[in-house]
Amino acid sequence: MNRNKINSRFCGLISALRNPPQAQAMIKGDSEYSEINGKIRFYGTQFGVLVAAEVFCLPTSKSECGSRVFGFHIHEGDMCSDDSNDPFSGAMAHYNPCDCKHPHHAGDMPPLFENDGYAFNVFLTDRFEINEIIGRTVIIHSNPDDFTTQPSGDSGTKIACGVIKRCV
Fold this sequence. Notes:
By secondary structure, the chain is mainly beta. The protein has helices at residues 3-16, 130-133; strands spanning 23-29, 37-45, 48-56, 69-70, 72-75, 112-113, 119-125, 137-141, 158-166. The strands form 2 sheets. The chain has a 7-stranded antiparallel β-sheet. It has a two-stranded antiparallel ribbon with strand order 4-6. Strand 2 and strand 3 (48-56) form a beta hairpin.
């Protein structure tokens, strides 16, 4: 791909972020992490779906060796309900319509890196279209995804959830 084509694609993606998203999920923490909140925005572009995540009040690390890393996925369920043994059990498993092995599920997304309790992540994906994810859930897990362990990357418990809704 030549430089002009790359610059054109980059400018197109940046301009998409200036428009209202086509879908979004409002993230809320479970009872143990009730302060977690944020918004995940989904923008349809000619190159795929641009996802912009902004999350506040994530648990922080006391280690001098860096911030915490959190697994971040779209799940197939349509609600953030839970029971006492399984936070956000209504989110169900990772969104995986093609029955791929992890980390090739359509719902596998890059991890969130905490920075003093805040995380911001923008990425482009062609693994799903916005219409496919409306009504599904976005989950933040307590641990980083190892991108190997089946079926979910050993990313720990679900600590925050949001239902993806179409923006009007």
